[in-house]
Amino acid sequence: YLGSRSITQEQSCQSDQCSLYFAGSTTLFNALLIKCLEKEVMALCRYTARRNTPPRFVALVPQEEEVDEQKVQVAPPGFHIIFLPYADDKRNIDFTEKVPASQEQVDKMKEIIQKLRFKYRTDSFENPVLQQHFRNLEALALDMMEPEQAEDLTSKNY
């Protein structure tokens, strides 16, 4: 933890990645989240993803839990990890003119967004570690040489 900055200040940083994951102590996590939300600040931190990678400066932007009318969670509480750019990554772009979107373009974009939405169900995704365990047991019981590899549908495909 390096410090904090007001969330209401203009955030002119361009990030290359964002994430909602935070590992570690739940007590520390909850205390930090509550205080950041109360004070309306984001935490500035140094983040090292792996032992052999250089550290990066990040902003932890708090997100409050959101529930709908039926008390169903819409957005979980947590932090968005925003990777801050280095000084030489920032540049000023001069815009010569503003080009507003036509109503047809707005309508087409609304159609695209509607097609991208889907109802999230936890049972739609199998636990890859558990599935691999079951396949290992099956291979052992059937005296197979090698078990089938379970496909991880939860990991990103880059």
UniProtKB/TrEMBL annotation:
Q: Name one GO cellular component term.
A: Ku70:Ku80 complex
Question: Tell me, what is an example of a GO biological process annotation in this record?
Answer: telomere maintenance
Q: Which GO terms describe its molecular function?
A: damaged DNA binding; DNA helicase activity; double-stranded DNA binding; telomeric DNA binding
> Which UniProt key words apply to this protein?
DNA-binding
Pfam families linked to this entry: Ku, Ku_C
- The record places domain Ku at 2-101
- NCBIfam families tied to this protein: ku70
UniProt name for this protein: XRCC6 protein
Where does this protein come from, organism-wise? Piaya cayana
Lineage of source species: Eukaryota, Metazoa, Chordata, Craniata, Vertebrata
